[in-house]
Amino acid sequence: MATERFNLDGRPIKPMTICMIGAGGFIGSHLCEKILYETPHKILALDVYNDKIKHLLESESLPWGDRIQFHRINIKHDSRLEGLIKMSDLTINLAAICTPADYNTRPLDTIYSNFIDALPVVKYCSENGKRLIHFSTCEVYGKTIGSFLPKDSPLREDPAYYILKENASPCIFGSIEKQRWSYACAKQLIERLVYAEGAENGLEFTIVRPFNWIGPRMDFIPGIDGPNEGVPRVLACFSNNLLRREPLKLVDGGQSQRTFVYIKDAIEAVLLMIENPARANGQIFNVGNPHNEVTVRQLAEMMTEVYAKVSGESSLEEPTIDVSSKEFYGEGYDDSDKRIPDMTIINRQLGWNPKTSLWDLLESTLTYQHRTYAEAVKKAVAKPTSS
Ligand SMILES: NC(=O)c1ccc[n+]([C@@H]2O[C@H](COP(=O)([O-])OP(=O)(O)OC[C@H]3O[C@@H](n4cnc5c(N)ncnc54)[C@H](O)[C@@H]3O)[C@@H](O)[C@H]2O)c1
Ligand SMILES: O=c1ccn([C@@H]2O[C@H](COP(=O)(O)OP(=O)(O)O[C@H]3OC[C@@H](O)[C@H](O)[C@H]3O)[C@@H](O)[C@H]2O)c(=O)[nH]1
C-alpha cells in the first residue's frame, strides 16, 4: 500500500483535503497532476472551466478516482464557497485575471478579480481557522530602482539596484493613467490584507510571487482554443506566431528582460509549501529562475531556433517584427523592465532550487505546442474565408 511520506523536518505527512480555486487554469492543472500523481491528498477543484484538467476527471477507473472533485463555481457569486473552504484543511487561491492585455483594457474587471473577488476567500479562511496559500505575482515589484538611473550609470550593473527581494524591495508602479498597473496594485493590496489577517487575527498564510512560470497548457492559441482576437501571455503569443509562420511581434523593440522558470520546477516549490506548513506559514516567496534571464528579443530568437528543431520546419527569413506597445496593447500599457528574483528566503525555508535551463524548457514546451496545435492551425489557415 501507500508508503508513508515525510516532510523536510522528518515528520510524517498526513493526507489533507485541499480547496483549489482556479484549479482549471495553467498552474492549477499542473498542481492537480502533481498532487494526484505523487501524494495521497484530496482536491476540491473549483473553477469556471475544466478543459485543462479533463484528463484528471473523466475516468473513474483512474488510480486517483475519488481524490479529485470538480465544482463549477464562479467565486464572484456562489454561496457554496464557504462550505468548501470549511471542508478543507488548506485553501489555495489561483483565481485571477492575469493576462497583461486585460490590465489596461479591462482595468475594472482586473481590479475586481484580483482584489474584491479574493476578499471572501481570505475572510472565510481567517474566520474558520483555515490555512491559505495565496497566489500573488512578481509584478508587485513593478519597475526596478535601476530603471530610474541615467542610461549610462554604472550603478545599473549593481545587483542592489535590480534584484527583487521579498522583504526589502519597494513596489514601484507607474502613474494612474498607466492602467497596466491596475493588476499589480490590486495584487499588492490583497497581499497586504492577507498579511494583516495574519498579524491581527492569526491567519496561517503563505504568499507566492511567481516569476514568469511557463510550460504546456499556458493560456491559449487564438482562433484554435481561445478567441481569435485574444492576446495571451508571451509564450502563447510567440507559439501562435511560430505555428502560423508569422513573424514574432516584439513590443517596443523587445528590450524588457524576464526570467522564465519551467512550470514543473515551480510546482515542486508549491508542493514543498503545501507539505511544510511550519516552514511556509507567514512567508512571502519569490518563485523563479534567476539563471534564465533573457530580453524578450532573445526569447523570440531562442523560440524560433527551438521551434525549427522540434517541428523540422525552416525559420522565416525575417523571424521578428517590431510593434509599438500602443498598437499591440492599446493606451495605458507600461512594462516591468527587469525581473530577477532573490532566492534567499525560499532556499533557506524550503531548500528549493529550479533545475531546468531555458533552452530545455522551451524544447519540451514547443514540442507540446507543435503536437497539440500544428494540425489544427494548418486546417484553420487553409479554410477559405467567407466573402
Ligand atoms: N503563470 C505565471 O507565470 C504567473 C505569474 C505571476 C502570477 N501568477 C498568478 O498565479 C495564478 C494562476 O495563474 P495561471 O497562470 O494559472 O492563470 P490562468 O488564467 O491559467 O488560471 C486562472 C484560473 O482561475 C480561474 N478563475 C478566474 N476567475 C475565477 C472566478 N471568479 N471563479 C472561479 N474561477 C476563476 C480561471 O478560469 C482560470 O482557470 C493567478 O493568480 C496569477 O495572477 C501566475
Ligand atoms: O507578442 C508579444 C507578447 C508579449 N511581449 C512582451 O513580452 C513581455 C512578457 O509578456 P507577458 O505577456 O508574458 O507578461 P509579463 O511578463 O509582462 O507579465 C506577466 O507576469 C507575471 C504575471 O503576473 C502575469 O502572468 C503577467 O502579468 C512583455 O515585455 C511584453 O510586452 C511581446 O514583445 N510580444
Descriptive tags:
single chain; 387 residues; alpha/beta; two-stranded parallel ribbon; 15 strands; 15% strand; globular; binds nicotinamide-adenine-dinucleotide; Lipid_A_modif_metabolic_enz; cell wall biogenesis/degradation
Structural class: alpha/beta
Name the poorly predicted regions: none
Apparent shape: globular
CATH fold-level label: Rossmann fold
Number of contiguous helices: 14
Number of domains: 1
Q: Any overview of this molecule?
A:
- Helices cover 37% and strands 15% of the residues.
- With 387 residues, it is α/β, with parallel strands linked by helices.
- The protein has a seven-stranded parallel beta sheet, with helices on both faces.
- The longest helix is centred in the last third of the chain and has 25 residues, at 358-382.
- The model has no long low-confidence stretch (mean pLDDT 97).
- Uridine-5'-diphosphate-xylopyranose (UDX) binds next to helix 8 and strand 9.
